[in-house]
């Protein structure tokens, strides 16, 4: 079969003729081909075929004639060339082979540069006179392509003339075969076919990639929710699945009884509950409740719990959303989700909308954050769009109130700002009693003592403390939680997890014991220092040892005396290393202490105005070079003075330093009472020595 015939047949039956970009069009073509076959018959042929195939007795007897008639109709439809190609004309005796051969010779001689006509003539000659094929081909007066070459080789084989050329090939001589093909004529059709096939394949591949990519993207966008078409001409069928779902409020069973440790914030929010229960009580006198309430405070203080408790106390629906849920990779998602949220809330009014971590979408707008700006704009529009009497209270929480956009926090939007601070001693006691009430406790558990020993802990820390203690008790196999497990949990939160399997050499352990003893002795003998909670040389976290200090009461402000005492405690470890092991043996273990001392001294000078040389000045982040030099000089001065004070102190209490270090080497961990028990005898001796010195003077 010739190349032109192969290409034609591929173009008729190739699946690449279908349009890969239109599923509807492809389906239509598929249905059309199923109805009519690969070729489209004329209406007359269809009618004849239908009548011939009717299941009647007469049709059954005339089945061979009908089949012949259908075959003739199909051949007629394909055209005269198809009839010639199938050799049907050879059936008729009055049209002989000589006339066909004469016609082919005339056509080939009339157009010697047409390779198709030359190939047709050579094929016909091969049937009658292969020698004529050799003669005509070797004259090289006509242009042939690969089909003509095939007929020439066929004639060589038939006449056995190909053996005449084999000796030349076997002897390594140049072949005496004539130049069979004109390169321009033979390659023209091949190149065209290759380019056509390459173009079709490229188009189909790109189309398939486009369709598959579009489908994958559509599925991904639909799974995200919150993005879809909007405006004129939009169709609901293209909307993501999540958008079509109804936004329903959260199931809430929290009340003010579940909120402990923040009585001031609860008291301020009680009027919101009263408004939701009885709105006419406020509107009767013309009062308006704030549209928005912003809860600020450190993480873990119970801001989200407060918002849920308000909704539970008032018995109204509660819609919860995190600030990060409004944003996705597509522009416009956040704005649409804000609209959907407020539309759902209006249907359930009176209700509460709570947006947690609102700084994710409500931070100060910047030029490069266009998508966030759109979300914030929509939020501002929605807050302006509902009136107080609609019964919708918008609440939000953040631990970064300073970065919120001023347009969001202005009166008329978030009118009221409520600070939820860490609980005090009484608040911590209430929180501990709440978390411990449903757990079996031993008789030695005292919630008041634990509350006093956990200053600075928030509600989340206390919940974690109780949970760690319960897990520890379960691991040990005891039936009740004891004070020992609670103390273990507190140490784990404050000091970190013990690393009992870590190998430490005796030399390193001894150096760590003296280092921590230096901290403890300075803290014990310095007025204004925090009380010692525990001293240990057991590695915890990234530290080889530590001395923890906890205030006896909640601190509201810190004096200069207390800050200087903290500087002295930081220097105690490095000074102890120098006194006991020499200046050449000091280690990097004091790097964190020096870092903390430097930060504290810089804070005292630049922020608190506790330097006579600088004065009561708050220094901005980037001061002038002159001011920075003066600040650095004051910081160095404070650190050197602290170092000298600690050095004199430890020289006077060197015996106590040795005793405490030996106790740490023996027991590894000492609590506050054990440290006092070791240091008190040396303290009494020191007091008697001071009294003797005063008497002599």
Automatic annotation (TrEMBL):
This is AAA+ ATPase domain-containing protein. Its main location: mitochondrion. Residues 289-424 form the AAA+ ATPase domain. The keyword Hydrolase applies. It comes from the Eukaryota. One of its GO terms (cellular component) is mitochondrial membrane. Residues 636-670 form a coiled coil. Probable ATP-dependent zinc metallopeptidase. InterPro entries: AAA+_ATPase, AAA_lid_3, ATPase_AAA_core, ATPase_AAA_CS, FtsH, P-loop_NTPase, Peptidase_M41, Peptidase_M41-like. Residues 25-34 have a biased composition (Basic and acidic residues). GO terms for biological process: protein import into chloroplast stroma; proteolysis. Keywords: ATP-binding, Coiled coil, Hydrolase, Membrane, Metal-binding, Metalloprotease, Mitochondrion, Nucleotide-binding, Protease, Transit peptide, Transmembrane, Transmembrane helix, Zinc. In the C-terminal section; belongs to the peptidase M41 family. Signal peptide: none annotated. It is found in: Mitochondrion membrane. It holds the Pfam family AAA. The keyword Ribonucleoprotein does not apply. PANTHER family: ATP-DEPENDENT ZINC METALLOPROTEASE YME1L1, METALLOPROTEASE M41 FTSH. Residues 8-22 have a biased composition (Low complexity). Residues 1-48 are annotated as: Disordered. One of its GO terms (molecular function) is ATP hydrolysis activity. SUPFAM superfamilies: FtsH protease domain-like (SSF140990), P-loop containing nucleoside triphosphate hydrolases (SSF52540). Gene3D superfamilies: 1.10.8.60, P-loop containing nucleotide triphosphate hydrolases (3.40.50.300), Peptidase M41 (1.20.58.760). Its cofactor is Zn(2+). SMART domains: AAA (SM00382).
